[in-house]
Specification:
Length: 270
Amino acid sequence: MSWARIMVPLAGTAHDQTVVQLAAKLAGAFQAELACVHAPADMADLMPWMGEGFMGGVQVTALESLKEAAQEGAKACAKVAADVSYPHTKVISLESPVWAGLAMEGRLSDVIVFDDAAARGRGPLAEAFQQLVADEQRPTLVARTGFKPDGVAVVAWDGGKEASRAMRTALPLLQKASSVVVVGAPSASSRAFELDRLVAFLGARGVKATAKVLEGSGDAGGLLLNAARDAGANLLVAGAFGHPRLQEFIFGGTTRTLLNSDGPSLFLSH
């Protein structure tokens, strides 16, 4: 099992450079294609505001501005992709309907890479991040400074289907990690689970891991982040949005704690 296509959505801004560099690190570890996908603002989003059959001067100007911005953004994405100098890079600039195109590119990719700003709900790709992780349920890496494919990885485990999906999807990356620590907080979960069983599962698949039980019954997100820091991890693998998404975004939850933290890079799967 390996990864053949890594996708990184881009907004066509100066902030794209860092996330492309980190995505290239991930792609390089698997000799995978790096798909740099430019997702500009969609002109179709203006149509309800314009009104059916009506094209005044303000509306025409707005459309022209969006077209020009999309063209400049596409050029910026092409430059960023060229500057990273990764040989298996492909640049794709989406047209309206942008979301449909972005979803399809995601479905044809093994992993999607976002930067920290989008994960925190900031910037032009914040909505795309939420949709691809929660609605499209695509495996996603939130790439932060210090990420490297062969670093220390921590796997959050509570025996649930979200954690299982994240762990199984991340297997190719876990197989490249220098060390893997399986962590879980039984007192903070309503489920009964055994960390040693996951250690055995990973061992049968070429991943040598150790287990660490986290003490405490408080915020699971805080416990996981502390465990990742103690392990010197630069990657935390976790299930995303275990509760209904609306509830998570209004009331917080473990996923929101991880996304808003200054911790390691996150590998998430819903």
